[in-house]
Structures are given as structure tokens and as C-alpha cells.
Amino acid sequence: MKKAIHFSVLLWLGLATTALLSQASGTAAAKNDGSAKAPDEVKGVNGGSDYVIGADDTLHISVWKEPDLTETLPVRPDGKISMPLLNDVTAAGLTPLQLKDTITEMLKKYIADPRVTVVVTGMNSRRVFVTGEVTHTGPMNLLPHMTVLQALAQAGFTQFANPKAIYLLRTQNGKQQKLPFNYKDVVKGNHPEQNIVVP
Hints:
Blueprint: E1 11-13, E2 16-20, E3 43-44, E4 58-63, E5 71-74, E6 80-83, E7 87-90, H1 96-107, E8 116-122, E9 127-130, E10 138-141, H2 148-155, E11 166-172, E12 175-181, H3 183-187
Parallel strand pairs: 3-8
Antiparallel strand pairs: 1-2, 2-11, 4-5, 4-8, 6-7, 9-10, 11-12
């Protein structure tokens, strides 16, 4: 008689809680930053300028021709970064472009025509939590547009996993959704609608 293996998985992202929940015999689940031209683009690693900065993200702030103001900084739990001359600057909740504009305006008191670049070098504010019959349990950084299949591929299955019985449990606006995910069907090209973006 086979022993049933029961487990649950949770995925947490920003203000919304998302989860992959699986409960079956041998089941796997994934839970759910001179002549040279001044840079004026705002970039985010693994993401575009629409990425919203959060606590624990890592930012590289570069001010053209001002090496003393160019730093790689963590976003503190209170959502702020600390910069020379400016002291605390709120970063969380802003896109890199918005933060670039904020820093530029603040620096105009000290520097003529400051050219600022903001690069998200570590996206640590959004995480997926994986547990169950997977090789790598615990949190993993959530990449932009990461799908359920990508999260599971990164987590890996154990020999006891049942990839046909995976569930995505997502809580948004106080309501919980339980979405089934059949790994074997999805990798064969069937039911692509199950391979949703995790956030």
C-alpha cells in the first residue's frame, strides 16, 4: 500500500499572495532587481522601465561625471535608499524612470543639469515560494512574466512527484483561486491556458 504524501505550497508576491497548492499521492508543487554621451536611459535587469521597485531590491544609481554620487544601493525595508547629498530618497513604489526623475530634480540644487541612470540590478522584492516534492524548496526570485512551467522547471521534481496533480492557489483582493496545472500536458503543448504568468 502506497503512502499518501500531503503537502502545501505558497507563493508570495508584493501585496498579493499567490500559491501553488498540491495535495495527492507523490505530488509536486511550486509556490506561489568629453566626447562621451551621457546615459539617459533607465533600465531594469530582467525587466523594463515599467518595473515597480520594492523593498530588498538592489539599485545601481549612476550620475554622469559624478563618481562620488554613483553607487549600488539596497532598497531598505522602509522603501528608501540613502544617497550622498540627498540623504533618504523613497524608491519603493516607483518605476526606475520615476525614481530617475525624482533624483534628477533633487540633485538640481547641487549640480547643473544632472544626468541620472537607474538600473535595477537585483529584483528581490518579488519571490516565489516552492515546496512539496521538488528538488529546490523555498523562495526563488520571481522574474518578469515568469510562468508556472518556468517556476517548476527551476524548482525541479523529485522521484516521488506526481506532475499531473499540481495546483496554483492564488489569493487576490481577499478571494482565493485554486487553479489546476498538469505539467505533463503543458509540456506536450496541451492546455497552454494552464501555463499562466505567476504574479
